[in-house]
Fold this protein.
Amino acid sequence: MKPLTGTTTDQAPADPAATEDMPATQPIGYWSGRAHAAVTRQLRDAMARIDVTQPQYWVLNRVNSGPAEPSRDEVISQLTSLADGPYEIARVIDQLLHRAWLRVDAEQRLHLTEAGEEARVRLRALVTEQRAVVHEGISDEQYVAALKVLRRMIANVEGDG
């Protein structure tokens, strides 16, 4: 961890009732954690109403995104860091195969079926709607600035590599 330089703002305890004139003293871990939990809950609740999970959406997008169809192991490797556990993505692939949203070819590559592509498109629209709810009153410039700050904080703690 790098030593603090030029920082004079004192760190206050997390305060859910903090007013807008106090945010510089509030801990980023608390507020970024609250934002993550609230946004994830909002999205997962919306998906649950149509009997889909966020990890299912990740897998559909991953299978659709590359120049070549991925193998099961490639999808698991690429998405496990996002999942709630080491076996979740493998289970999701099995669920999507069972729903006939995915199929496996002779080379063991995953493909979206027509139903899988329809689901992916429907979910994309749902995610776009939910993004609009989350981003209400926030300009794209404000959003980009917030992401830049968070990315810099991550780099400060984890290093640039």
Remarks:
- The chain has six helices and two strands.
- The radius of gyration is 20 Å.
- The beta strands are 102-104, 110-112.
